[in-house]
Design brief:
By secondary structure, this protein is α+β, with helices and mostly antiparallel strands. It has four domains: about 210 residues, no CATH class; about 100 residues, Sandwich (Immunoglobulin-like); about 130 residues, no CATH class; about 130 residues, Galactose-binding domain-like (Jelly Rolls, Sandwich), CATH 2.60.120.260. The protein contains 21 helices and 29 strands. Strand 12 and strand 13 form a beta hairpin. Helix 4 packs parallel to helix 17 and helix 10 runs antiparallel to helix 11. It is globular and about 85 Å long. It starts with 7 loop residues before the first helix and ends with a strand. The relative contact order is 0.08.
Length: about 800
């Protein structure tokens, strides 16, 4: 393993010099995106489609919030979707233009990027203090924050998160787009931020950072690397949220029920600080976070979270029950974290994860025809996903989706001194200009595990090649052949095979990896499995009934697949011995003319489901699908049906009756329902989040009614509450019920209580506000979930 610690300070110096080129300006050991040319593959298709998709967006509408906030006349109106977060997609789009210009050389992307920068510069100049942002009513917010009123951030939709996208867009326009004006604008904005928080105490910062702030620590670490000015490093560290940092830097996992993509960018920032300073606590924090999430909190596709939150271990089964599975943004940031850690220490484990998440999640989140982006990828058997429309959806995962498909060449190859790392098996050409080496990788991976590396040009004949031995290849089943010698024989999975020799033009290395089927179990619930062929998650289409909202409109919750859920007992289960199933699949041949399609052996599936075909999950679109399968013996399946079938029926019946619902104590569901509170607190009990309010406080939220009038509130409580817990439940200010929870049931389980809403409360109402108010000397709650259901 090559030691990179000694080169850290040198690399920082190089990053500060004008001699540095492309991504090496910030990201050591990486090649410029333009130096890696994708050849025919699903990645090339996705990249090219994404360019055309991006060019359909109305740039003036994306710029509107910045002009409006600067007091300039917008040239077009803002997009109405996610209007309270106005401006965030504009920052992502600027990044995407720079990234796709770098990766494809398409001048149309550069023209868009330069136009945006010119307009944004007008805004920054007009503001006069370095500020540049689209945060709605941002001027008033930032004035209050500077005065120390940090609680104001809770009255806005994650304003620091929003602003981070502007910082990142300017940085990327310089980093990938080589626009020097963008760097000047980035530093001006960085100076504004330094001055804004300068007088805030550590306690005020910590209070403010409980609100989602994206990767603000990351961009300030970048500003430090660009300039060498330690003010920016200090600021990056001030954005290290201690609630998370203090835990993970001591290798303690405190992520249960936290909003997942609030936390992942924090860890990306820890990694960037560690990369520049090699401070041990930052290195530990970044690496432990990655290890925890990638190994203990991710699903088979490499993604994480349900309802945008990390479930507790007691609640891991909810992945199989919820519509809202892993969020694309999370995986975008986990790839950043894995790539950054690999730059610091080239361990194959990071690239094993990177490959898995890249193929199975990121590649799968773009529709291969119209280019729409996916927000949630449900893991529930026989559910589906929905896609964005150009100039309609302004979801966070639209923003990261804009960037994702231009960065496929980023980690295929990396370098360190005279060492060239072959990390991913993707058809591509590399031009290592500094060494005078050109290399082509010809491969049909993942159709087969074969790849050929050809040296097309060589000036530095002493270069080492290090080829990843993936962890999914069984020991002894990888060959790396050159001139009759197998270089892989003394290596094990999860390592790099080193070829150190004198190179000549025309040299070829033949790689052959066994692509075998294997199983991954759902953590804590081994009865649910995913099927893999090599690193590729294999799914199956299971129908296209009720694909409600398949291509989303601009509804606030259009990113959620609202179509009906299918009973787990009506989805295909794999009945039989797993070892026999895998043996049968490994002996099977692909279906005719479809090299990655395999029939599921009929002996393992009930006849009523017909013939099922396994195919790469990244190919499955516009369909319900199987990612996880119930897998057990026939006797075990019968026992499960006896025990759970009626419970499952009741859950689905309730789901059909539910008009709207909010999970209390979770950031995103509360934000989605315009949550408000005073003297309120939240926590987790028995794996479920809750909310209550103390004497003199309250909490409230909005629920949509769909203009229905025969509705009730169904509220979930814990059955063993004690103390003074008398409170009122109000609907639009009218008393609905008074509840007394203290000693009501004295049973350690959850109870659902229904409260019928008078029709007069609902007449002509599209939304109602539900409010919980404690009686004098009492607390309101704990409340776990509230549903608005049809009677």
């Amino acid at each position: 393993m090559i030691n990179r610690n000694k080169t850290a300070i040198l690399l920082l110096t190089v990053g500060l010099s004008s001699a540095a080129i492309a991504q090496d300006k910030l990201y050591s050991h990486t090649f410029a995106l333009g130096d890696v040319k994708l050849l025919e593959s699903p990645f090339l298709h996705a990249q090219n489609l994404n360019v055309e998709t991006l060019l359909e967006y109305d740039v003036d509408r994306l710029l509107a919030p910045f002009l409006k906030e600067a007091g300039l006349e917008p040239k077009a109106p803002s997009f109405s979707n996610w209007i309270d977060l106005d401006g965030h997609v504009g920052g992502h789009y600027l990044s995407a233009m720079a990234i796709h210009f770098a990766s494809t050389g398409d001048r149309r992307c550069k023209e868009r990027m330069d136009y945006m920068l010119a307009e944004l510069k007008r805004c920054q100049d007009k503001n006069g203090d370095g500020y540049l942002g689209g945060v709605p009513n941002g001027e008033n917010l930032w004035k209050e924050v500077k005065k120390g009123n940090v609680g104001e951030v809770w009255k806005y939709w994650v304003p620091w998160y929003n602003l981070h996208k502007t910082y990142a867009g300017l940085r990327d326009a310089w980093l990938y787009g080589n626009n020097e004006e963008a760097k000047v604008m980035f530093i001006k904005l960085s100076d504004w931020g330094v001055n804004l928080i300068a007088a805030l105490s550590d306690e005020q910062m910590e209070s403010m950072l409980a609100n989602e702030f994206g990767g603000m620590n990351e961009v300030y670490a970048d500003a430090y690397q660009i300039t060498g000015d330690k003010r920016y490093l200090t600021t990056a560290k001030r954005f290290s949220h201690k609630l998370v940092f203090d835990s993970v830097s001591n290798r303690v996992d405190n992520l249960d029920n936290m909003h997942a993509n609030t936390q992942v960018p924090k860890a990306v920032g820890y990694q960037r600080v560690a990369e520049l300073t090699y401070e041990q606590d930052y290195t530990t924090a970044a690496d432990f976070f990655w290890e925890t999430v990638s190994l203990n909190r991710s699903l088979s596709l490499g993604g994480n979270s349900r309802r945008e939150h990390f479930p507790s271990e007691q609640d891991f089964l909810s992945y199989m029950e919820e519509r809202e599975g892993p969020e694309s943004c999370n995986t975008n940031n986990m790839l950043k974290l894995a790539g950054g850690l690999f730059r610091m220490k080239p361990d194959a484990k990071y690239m094993d994860f990177y490959e898995k998440a890249l193929y199975n999640h990121i590649l799968s989140t773009q529709h291969p025809e119209h280019g729409g982006y996916v927000y949630f990828t449900s893991a529930r058997p026989a559910h589906y996903r929905v896609y964005s429309q150009v100039n309609s959806a302004m979801w966070c995962c639209v923003g990261t989706g804009m960037e994702n498909h231009g960065k496929y060449g980023e980690m295929i190859y990396t370098h360190d001194g005279d060492a060239l790392y072959i990390n991913l098996f993707v058809a591509s050409e590399l031009d290592w200009k500094e060494k005078g080496i050109k290399l082509t990788q010809h491969t049909d991976f993942p159709v087969s595990g074969k790849s050929t590396l050809t040296i097309d040009k060589i000036n530095a004949s002493d270069a080492k090649l290090l080829i990843r031995y993936p962890n999914w290849v069984p020991p002894g089943k990888m060959k790396v052949m050159m001139d009759g010698k197998d270089y892989a024989t003394s290596y094990q999975p999860g390592s790099y095979i080193v070829i150190d020799r004198t190179w000549r033009k025309g040299d070829k290395i033949e790689i052959d990896m066994s692509m075998e089927f294997h199983v991954e179990e759902l953590r804590h619930h081994p009865q649910y499995i995913s099927l893999f062929r090599g690193p590729i998650l294999m799914g199956s289409k299971v129908g296209n009934d009720d694909l409600q909202g398949l291509v989303a409109d601009d509804h606030r919750w259009g990113h959620i697949a609202h179509g009906s859920l299918v009973s787990l007992f009506d989805t295909p289960a794999l009945i039989g011995e797993r070892t026999e199933l895998i043996k049968s699949l490994n002996q099977a041949r692909p279906t005719y003319n479809k090299p990655l399609h395999f029939e599921v052996p009929s002996a393992f599936v009930e006849e009523r489901h017909g013939q099922l075909t396994l195919q790469p999950f990244y190919e499955i679109h516009d369909s319900r699908y199987m990612m996880y399968w119930l897998a057990m013996t026939g006797e075990e399946f019968k026992e499960l049906q006896t025990e759970k079938k009626e419970e499952e029926r009741l859950k689905l019946e309730l789901d059909k009756r539910t008009v709207d619902a909010v999970k209390l104590g979770e950031q995103q569901p509360e934000a989605d329902h315009r949550f408000k509170d005073e003297k309120s607190s939240r926590g987790v009990h028995n794996g479920q989040s809750w909310r209550d309010a103390e004497n003199g406080g309250y909490f409230s939220f909005e629920l949509q009614t769909a203009k229905k009038e025969d509705l009730s509130l169904l509220i979930t409580y814990w059955g063993y509450e004690s103390g003074n817990r008398d409170f009122d439940i109000l609907v639009d200010g009218e008393l609905l019920a008074t509840e007394k929870l203290g000693g009501k049931w004295n049973q350690s389980k959850f109870f659902d209580v229904s409260y019928e809403i008078p029709k007069a409360y609902l007449k002509d109402a599209a939304f109602v506000t539900v409010k919980f108010v404690p009686h004098n000397g009492h607390r309101a709650g704990r409340v776990f979930r509230v549903r608005l259901v049809e009677d």
